[in-house]
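Researcher: Please predict.
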Amino acid sequence: MMNKAHQPELHKLVGIQMPKRYTRIFIDYLTDVQLTRLSFWLSNQGESESDSYRWRLTQQEFDRRGLQCPALWHRLPFDNEVQRAEWELWAAIRKAKQEKRPIARARKLG
């Protein structure tokens, strides 16, 4: 089981301190680059997150600005190499979780 302490923190991935509650003013304050990273992260969090208020609010602003989200994390705009490394860690953890699911299902079948 993956320890949550090793998960990259959202404020490092986006590049700004994230509030517990998103507001329209906060979303307006984000730069296009920060909004792109936040939108990409939210869109990869699963169904419960994508249905949330903060995802809808972020997506509305993303669409209003006419931004395009890259298909892969490699193409996200990074502020520096440290931030790129945080995204690399995020992608590795996500991939590990995805690879574990089929193994667990195979064990149940076998």
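Model: The mean pLDDT is 83.
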